[in-house]
């Protein structure tokens, strides 16, 4: 394997590994946020109101209060919201935590696969001297000639082994006719011989009588 090809392959796998690590970090953050949200939702209905600091614009905050602590608006996706209880919202957060865990497990497998590929590339590049590259020349004209010979051979095979039944039936009828003709000829020859023998007997009998 050429060194330039090895380097390019390692670069591609390095990019894939870096992207995989970024996804892992992102899903870890999602999981941590949902875990904190679930913990807060489980304790939210313990009081009827909470004093909080509410964001007011990009750089300002104002004092506020959370009321209706058992009523939560949950984002379902595509700007669709549903009003649920705190317990139901905690269950939704728990399902999303499980989804994050599943995604992290898949990404860890992908990360391990990238590491295995890179280790294999290092081994191949280290033992590059013992490898032999097989190069097979390709000639378009030679390929066309080979395909022509192949098609002729297939047609011959089909003619010999897959000939229609009516061809064999015609051949059988022809052989039967020939055999019948041969039998008729033999019978005719036998009759002629018998007639000639009978004629010769009559002639001998006449000669004896004379």
UniProtKB/TrEMBL annotation:
Ranges annotated as biased composition (Polar residues): 190-199
Residue stretches of biased makeup (Basic residues): 201-210
Pfam families cross-referenced by the UniProt entry: Prefoldin
SUPFAM superfamilies to which the protein is assigned, alphabetical: Prefoldin
InterPro entries assigned: Prefoldin (IPR009053), Prefoldin_subunit_alpha (IPR004127), RNA_pol_II_subunit5-mediator (IPR052255)
Transmembrane segments: none
GO molecular function: chromatin binding; phosphatase inhibitor activity; transcription corepressor activity
A Gene Ontology cellular-component term: nucleus
GO biological process: negative regulation of transcription by RNA polymerase II
Region (Disordered): 178-210
Cellular location(s): Nucleus
Annotated keywords: Nucleus
PANTHER family (alphabetical): RNA POLYMERASE II SUBUNIT 5-MEDIATING PROTEIN NNX3 (PTHR15111), UNCONVENTIONAL PREFOLDIN RPB5 INTERACTOR 1 (PTHR15111:SF0)
Family: Belongs to the RNA polymerase II subunit 5-mediating protein family.
Name this polypeptide is given: Unconventional prefoldin RPB5 interactor
Protein's organism: Araneus ventricosus (Orbweaver spider)
